[in-house]
Every structure is written in C-alpha cells, then in structure tokens.
Amino acid sequence: MKISNNLLHLSLKEAFLDIVPFYIISSLGILFINVFNIDANTNNIVIKSFLHISNTFSYLFPIFLIIAISYYLANNYHISRFISICISLLVFIKFAWVIENNQLYYNHHMEIYAFFIPIISTYLYIYLYKIKSLKIIKENYIISNQLKIVVNSLIPILIVYLFLTFLIPYISEFLQIILEKFFLSITENFSIEIKTFIQVITTHIIWWLTGIHGTHIYNIFADLSYSQQEIFQNLTSETFIYSFLVFGGAGSTLSLIIAIILKSKNHHNRKISFISFPFAIFNINEILLFGLPIIMNFTLLIPFLLLPIINFFTSYLVFSFFAIPESDYILSWTTPIFVSGYLLGNAQSYIFVFLQLFNLIVGVFVYLPFLKLYDQSQELNNNTKKLKEKFNIKDQVDIIEEISFFKTQAEIIKEKSNTHKMVEDLISGDLLLYYQPKIDIKNDQCYGFEALLRFKTKDNKIVGPYFISQIEKAGYNFVIDLWVINQVLQDLEKWHKKSFFPRISINLSPESISNEYIINKIIRKLKNKNVEIEILERTFASEHCKFMKNILKLKANGFAISIDDFGTGFSSLQYLHILPANIIKLDKTLLDNITTSKGKILYKDIAKMCQHLNYTLISEGVETKEDVDFLKSIKIDIIQGFYYSKAIPFNEVYFF
Q: Quick one: CA dihedral 54, 60, 65, 70, positive or negative?
C-alpha cells in the first residue's frame, strides 16, 4: 500500500475538523472562567455543564486527538479503523498513565505524543501487515475476510507496540535533552527582544504543524521566565505578544476573520468565522485553527507566520518612540484588542489603540490574497464533491491530484473558471454510455463493443465528451472512470439477464491505471464479465514504471489489455516486445494515409510486425469500402468505424 503525503494531510485535516465542536464548548468554558470571572462552583446548571465539558475536554483532548487521527488514517488507507485506533491507544496509554503505589496517575502535557503516536503506529502497522511471513493465515481458508484481517494483524500489532514502547522513551529523553541544551546554549545570552521573537516564530510553527498549543510545547524545552520581564519599560514580553502581535490568537487571526467576512464567498469559511469571532475578541482561536482549518494549510502558512513578524517590527518601532506610562491595570492574554491598548495607556492615551488598529488593518490586507487562493482551491475541491455526488460515486480514491504549487496565480484563476463552468455543465445534464461495434470481417460477426462516453445536455441533445480535456487538466479523470465502471457493470447485468454476454472494452485514463484503489475496484466489479481494458498508447511512454504492476495485475485477473490509438505520435518500437497487452488498435490517422503508396506500406508493415508479435489487431476509423478491402488484403480481421456502425445507445446493442 502506497504511503501518500496527500493522504496524511487529508487525514489530519479531517481529524482536526471533527474535534471542532469540543473546542467550541471548551472555548466557552475559558470565556466563563478567564474573561467573565464566573465561579467554577456556580449553581447555574447550564454554565456548570459547559465548565464540566470544558475541563473534561482539556483532560481528554489527547485521547480525542488519537482517536480522530487514527480513524481517518485508517479510513483513507482502507485498513481496519478499530485496529488502528486500538494500536495507537495502547501505545499512548503506556506513557500517559503511570501506576505508583497502587495509584493511577495521568501525565499532563501529552498532546505531542497524541499527535505523533497514531501517525507512526498506523504507518508502521500498514508496512508490517504487508509482510507475508508475519501472516498467521496465509491461505484462502473458508473464513470471513474480517476474521482473517484480525488474526493476521496480531503479530504486526505486537511488534508495533513493543517497538514503540521501547523506542519512544529514549527518543523523547534524547530530544528533550538535546533541545534544552540547544536552546539554553543558543539563547542564553540573547536579549529579551530576540528571545521573544524566537518564541513567536517557534510556537507558530508548532501550532501550524501539529495543532497543539505552541507555548505549551515550547515551554517543555525553553525557559519562559523572561516573558515576565520588561521588553520596554512598563511592558512585559508576554503582554507585548498577546496585546500587539497575535490579535485573535496565534497568527493574528482576527485579521483573517475580518478578511473572510469582508471578501470570502465560501459558505463554510464564513460560518466558521462568524462562530469564531466572539472568541477571537478574547484571543481564543482554536475554533478557527481547526475548523477552517489553518493547521496543515499550506495556502495560509505564509501569512500565518508572516503577520506576527510584521506586527513585531511595527510595534517595536512605535514603542521605541512612545513611552508607556505606569498603570494600575492588569492585562491578561484574554484582554480584548483595543481594550488592552487603551488600558496600557493608563486609560488616558489612544496611541496604542491606533497601533493595534493599524496592525489589524495591515493584517487584513496581508491575508486577503492568500484567502483568495484558498477560496479557489476549496471551490475546486467542492467541484470534485459535486461530481462524485452527481455520478453517485461514494468511494474515496487513494490520491486526488491537487493544483501544482508552482502554477502562477493567473493559471489557477483560469483553470478555476473553466473547471467551474465544466462542473455546472455536467451537473445540468447527464452522462451516457454509447457502444460502438467491433466487426470480425473474416467471419462477418460482431466481435464486441467499445464503451464510449456521451453527454446529454439540459436541452436533451446528445453530444460527444467535449469536456474531457478540461477534466484532465482539473484532475477529475478518476470521477469519470469510476462512473464508467459502475455504468458498464449495470449494463452488463441487464444484458446477462437476457442471456446476452457481449465483450465490452472500456477506456481508462493514465491516472486511473496508476491508482491501485481503482484497479482493485475494476477487479472486484468486472472480473469474469468479458471486459477489455483500453489504455492510451501515451501512457506507456509517460507512466511506464507506475502502471506496469497494475496492468499485470489486471491481466492476472483475466482482463484483456488493449493499446488504444497506436501510432498517434508516441509510438516506440522498444515497447512493442514488452507491452503487457493482448490487442493493439491502429489509430485512424494511419488509415487516413493509405491513399498514398508510402501510407499503405507503413500501415501494412506496422500491422505485419504486430501480427508477428502475436498481437490481435483492430483497425480504427474504418469509413469506406476501400478501407475494408485494404484491411482484408493485409489480413486484419477486426475493424471499427462508421462503415459498419457509429456508437449506438444501450437499448440498441442487444439487437445489433
């Protein structure tokens, strides 16, 4: 099973999104206690319930995180979700709970373990499960597949548990010592300004990468005692950070919320922003971090890191010129923006309020271009979802191609616009399969049919698949291919009920041939149903290493392999002797040239060479009697083209 960075990224985003409801309740608890100073022993049943859930969530957050990450990793890699969760919990509990003097103690600050343990344990299990020598049941005994998976998982689970419980303590201790020594040696003689700057950058990276409170992790290996020291007279480092660098929480995300409310048209983003806004006023932004999400979001990474840096330098510059008066007011990390600036001026000056306003506005403009890109990428993802729903494709594929990171903004905007139009067209109409007969001219019989895509527009016109090139550019080939697989299966089942068993060939994109999940789906649904797989010739030239294994797998399961459009410009003689194919279809462009003597010689010699290599030949694009006579003369038996029939709808195939 292929390990994909895309799937890891997807699994983490899904896991973080799942725990957003808990964060909403947890954030309310923080507001009640830290902002509104509500007594934890209040008799108000509603508030008391919120506080109880908030405290419970804080206590059990590592458990929730492990379950969520393990679940989605298992779901996306198509392994047992129960097994993945159990392995991760077993390893985590080994370190989280300690028994001393017959008492059970819980180790706090286990979030970093909760993030890495499910990732490492799941990937290690996937690797070990593939090793045949570790399987207890090696033969296909008559037992349920679920029982077979469970039994064969016993040894991999044991190895994962023993390996990680042995190794993690040493790695943890080693890293903690190394990091402590590193930070002490590097930062010991630094000024408080540089220490503050390093803290801001490091904690933001931790936040973005893991979803775990950056300051909590940073405090494990760094001495934060300087945070209560004054970076400027009457201004501590901690107040400097919370009041002027990170409005609305890490990444100064209050600016992002305002940018979303002002400019974003994405319903999900706007909904999360409105929910997050009242909490962000008090610098609580976990809802936004997990719900948008910002964590592991490469599009928003740059402004998330850049904005606190900009705020650092603009604020530092202002405080270098304006003295901070002594004040009796106490500021905390939850003191709202503008209120903290006003109180810092001892409720007499607005200069620091204007500084906060300036930084907030700058932040909005910093986030806006990245928000635009993020909205576009989300719309493309929504297009995929719409297509899957339209064509009733519920399965998740292993890899969905993403827009290249290196495309220019203009290319992305253009692609987004074209893709959006394509999706609207597809949703407004219907996909159809037509079948073009292949004729055995030697025996004057129908050899089989090629399934060809057609589109019924909203005004009921049947047209060709004009959208194919745009589908390829947008990376949606897999959606169409999965629909074709399902539709061919439905048509075959209807024909079989009439005791009609035609040979059907289907075309697959290079992306689908390289996708193990789709190959397994084909085998599961179409095996032993007289189906041929047609593959574009260019696939062999560009995807040789990736798809060969899957082609051989299809052949081993009884599928005939046909090379489509042979001779369209990608032909290479070096492939002819190694192609794992049964059939070669000579492209129409070769046949169009037989009006010349050189064209006839070329066609004849290519056909003769393929015949000597024991390939079955099919001539495409046959339109005239002269074409048929020529093909008979060079002993090509199977032809396909308008001379005999164009592609016909499903209900005409039985009577052909």
A: negative
